[in-house]
């Protein structure tokens, strides 16, 4: 009887179960809040050390979110135990976001403990859910749990160290976590997890990642609007706000007009859903989300220091954010269509060339150039796709 009850926690292969549920969307808001917290911290301190710290924290926040997405892909979020897991992780996510700005300060051990607790508790819960229902999946999550225990030890030890030691140990922890799927969670005596063990719904993964991207873009617009109200006395604020708004709109178009649809189709039609989901969503969407966050930081710089001479520090955010976003889209579209979008590659070249104007241009000009490049990429791809559609009609 207990076996049947646990089996009920696993997602059923019907249409409704492939759709993102309301608890999942509620959960996403917490992690977007964490990323916005990180953007605010970067905008206030964009030193080399702060950038390194931010990279590690983005990797950590993404890893919690994407692993939870995999679990909710496999489990039925309409079941009360799974919902309670999500709400528990949501509470942990809020605490994680609160501790995040001081993760490399006084809250290091707190951040590490919350992060590790979320990762281990979720893995143990899923391990229990599959215990008597699916032996290969159970063994996969046993391996995942052991890898999480190893990385958690590094997180907790890093939380006890000073800045240099913390950077080293937390970097090691993230290397362990990000390498583990590629190594198929190899564990001595258990071996590697076989390919395509988990019954992944590609359509669900595609929708979850797309919704997360759109929430990130929406939060970027709200944050930009709030920053604009603080600088309305500057004559350039309205123009810079319009540029920032347009850049967010162009990013939406670049991701959703073609790439997201192709990614969803690829994930749904493939005979290797687990491998494709790993490439398209676990790794492929990370630079997209990171690019949106870095773009938000650049928009903050352009609003608060619109007419000041630009610098390499400001350019890293204003030009680097769109470049990272385009790089992620190249990855996704190459995996989904096996073609490299020429428009995106041209956009990366233009953003690289735009660095030449940084020494002689104010921030609002650099911001406008970044927006123009995103516009060129969006228009180029739109016209290219129309031409292909017309030739095949």
TrEMBL record:
Keyword Transmembrane, does the record have it? yes
Q: Which Pfam families match?
A: LtrA
Annotated keywords: Membrane, Transmembrane, Transmembrane helix
InterPro entries recorded for this chain? Low_temperature_requirement_A
Span-the-membrane segments of this chain are 21-40, 46-65, 85-104, 141-161, 167-187, 237-256, 276-294, 314-332, 339-358, 364-385
Q: Does the keyword Transferase apply?
A: no
Q: What is this protein called?
A: Low temperature requirement protein A
Originating organism: Ensifer oleiphilus
């Amino acid at each position: 009887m207990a076996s049947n009850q646990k089996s009920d926690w696993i997602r059923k292969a019907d249409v409704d179960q492939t759709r993102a549920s309301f608890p999942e969307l509620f959960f996403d808001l917490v992690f977007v809040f964490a990323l916005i917290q990180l953007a605010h911290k970067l905008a206030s301190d964009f030193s080399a050390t702060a950038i390194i710290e931010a990279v590690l924290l983005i990797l950590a926040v993404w890893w919690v979110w994407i692993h939870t997405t995999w679990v909710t892909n496999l489990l039925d979020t309409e079941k009360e135990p799974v919902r309670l897991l999500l709400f528990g992780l949501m509470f942990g996510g809020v605490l994680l976001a609160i501790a995040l700005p001081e993760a490399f300060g006084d809250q290091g051990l707190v951040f590490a403990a919350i992060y590790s607790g979320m990762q281990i508790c979720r893995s143990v819960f899923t391990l229990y859910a599959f215990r008597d229902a699916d032996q290969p999946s159970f063994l996969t999550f046993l391996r995942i749990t052991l890898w999480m225990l190893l990385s958690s030890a590094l997180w907790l030890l890093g939380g006890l160290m000073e800045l240099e030691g913390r950077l080293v140990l937390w970097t090691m922890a993230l290397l362990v976590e990000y390498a583990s799927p590629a190594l198929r969670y190899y564990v001595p005596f258990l071996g590697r997890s076989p390919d395509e063990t988990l019954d992944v719904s590609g359509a669900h993964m595609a929708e979850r990642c797309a919704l997360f991207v759109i929430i990130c873009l929406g939060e970027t617009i709200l944050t930009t609007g709030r920053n604009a109200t603080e600088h309305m006395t500057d004559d350039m604020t309205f123009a810079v706000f319009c540029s920032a708004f347009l850049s967010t709109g162009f990013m939406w178009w670049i991701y959703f007009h073609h790439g997201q649809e192709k990614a969803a189709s690829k994930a749904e039609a493939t005979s290797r859903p687990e491998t494709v989901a790993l490439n398209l969503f676990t790794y492929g969407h990370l630079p997209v989300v990171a690019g949106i966050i870095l773009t938000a930081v650049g928009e903050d710089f352009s609003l608060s220091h619109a007419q000041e001479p630009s610098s390499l520090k400001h350019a890293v955010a204003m030009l680097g954010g769109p470049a990272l976003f385009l790089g992620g889209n190249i990855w996704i579209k190459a995996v989904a269509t096996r073609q490299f979008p020429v428009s995106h590659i041209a956009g990366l070249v233009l953003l690289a060339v735009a660095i030449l104007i940084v020494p002689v241009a104010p921030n609002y000009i650099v911001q406008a150039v970044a927006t123009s490049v995103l516009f060129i990429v969006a228009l180029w791809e739109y016209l290219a796709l129309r031409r292909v559609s017309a030739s095949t009609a």
